[in-house]
């Protein structure tokens, strides 16, 4: 039996470690940097906050595998938009990290943490959850009921001038 639990502020560094592994798996290169320190700080602060916002579910790693560490995590955020037909609360969920440490893969941990996160989203009044799936993870998400919704378009605005 897989035991998931709600992520706590003290899990922030391990969540960021798993997030770094996820990015390395996605693009084939490890990218350490200052972003990790900032991510730990933000995750710690947001996991400590009351109410909907950042939600995460984790599975603890085996103690004999080298001290306290996380085996897997699923992390997402509740976004509050204006209510609309079909979405009377205006709350939408976005899953942005699902990762299992390589030592624990193939045991259903990604499914268990993602299902716990989806249940939490439902408890928060979320009516739709979005995510971006890698080709390797698409089968898992489809088995949970995810399907194409619309064409996602993105724009990097980091280079745009900021008003003074």
TrEMBL record:
Q: What name does UniProt use for this protein? A: GNAT family N-acetyltransferase
Per the UniProt record, the lineage of the source organism begins with:
Bacteria, Bacillati, Actinomycetota, Actinomycetes, Kitasatosporales
Organism of this sequence: Streptomyces triculaminicus
- Which Gene3D superfamilies would you find in this protein's record? 3.40.630.30
Q: Which domain of life is it from?
A: Bacteria
Q: Which InterPro entries match?
A: Acyl_CoA_acyltransferase (IPR016181), GNAT_dom (IPR000182)
Q: Which GO terms label this protein's molecular function in UniProt? A: acyltransferase activity, transferring groups other than amino-acyl groups
- PROSITE patterns linked to this entry: GNAT
Q: Which residues form a coiled coil?
A: none
Q: Can you give the residue ranges of the N-acetyltransferase domain? A: 2-164
């Amino acid at each position: 039996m897989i035991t998931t639990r709600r992520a706590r502020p003290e899990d922030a560094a391990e969540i960021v470690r798993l997030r770094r592994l996820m990015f390395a798996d996605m693009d084939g290169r490890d990218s350490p940097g200052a972003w990790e320190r900032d991510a730990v700080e933000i995750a710690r602060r947001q996991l400590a906050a009351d109410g909907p916002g950042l939600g995460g579910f984790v599975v603890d790693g085996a103690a004999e595998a080298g001290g306290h560490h996380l085996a897997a995590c699923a992390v997402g955020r509740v976004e509050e938009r204006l209510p609309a037909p079909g979405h009377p609360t205006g709350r939408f969920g976005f899953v942005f990290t699902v990762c299992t440490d390589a030592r624990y893969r193939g045991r259903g941990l990604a499914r268990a943490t993602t299902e716990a996160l989806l249940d939490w989203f439902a408890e928060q009044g979320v009516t739709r959850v979005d995510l971006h799936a890698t080709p390797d993870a698409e089968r898992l998400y489809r088995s949970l009921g995810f399907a194409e919704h619309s064409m996602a378009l993105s724009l990097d605005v980091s280079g745009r001038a900021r008003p003074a």
